[in-house]
Design brief:
Elements: E1 2-4, E2 10-12, E3 26-31, E4 35-41, E5 52-57, E6 67-69, H1 77-87, H2 95-114
Antiparallel strand pairs: 1-2, 3-4, 4-5, 5-6
Biased composition (Polar residues): 76-89
Region (Disordered): 72-94
């Protein structure tokens, strides 16, 4: 899926629930002209283990040197869902960001089926996505 933001930057999004050699892993990479980010959570999505965040920027950019950023402990979605009824607080992500993301996925499927471009209109910001 191609993504284009108001400033004119473009990107490509590839998503797969399960891919050969990956068991429910998360790999996210974002590259810009001044920095790049890399998030990796290999096989730990179901266990609640922390993933890893890496940054390549500044003088490291031309050397392709990545620095790891320490992450604070974060409860996984399974824990959030089970704790919400007990606490009475709706955790994040809430329904609206999930519905916004589903709209993007629906448009991607529609575009793939028709072979035509589909724009996400009416969302100046996809909150939580």
């Amino acid at each position: 899926m191609m993504a284009e933001i108001e400033g004119g930057a473009v990107g490509v999004i590839h998503a797969s629930r399960f891919a050969s050699g990956h068991m429910n892993d998360l790999h996210l990479r974002m590259h810009g002209t001044r920095a790049a980010l890399k998030v990796t959570n290999t096989g730990a999505l179901n266990t609640g283990a922390l993933g890893e965040l890496f940054v390549c920027s500044g003088p490291n950019l031309e050397k392709a040197a990545w620095e790891q950023v320490k992450l604070p402990p974060t409860p996984n979605n399974y824990r959030k869902v089970t704790e919400a009824p007990q606490s009475g607080v709706n955790g994040h992500p809430a329904f609206r960001p999930a519905a916004n993301l589903q709209r993007v996925l629906d448009l991607a499927v529609e575009s793939s089926t028709t072979g035509e471009r589909r724009d996400v209109k009416g969302y100046t910001q996809l909150q939580g996505v």
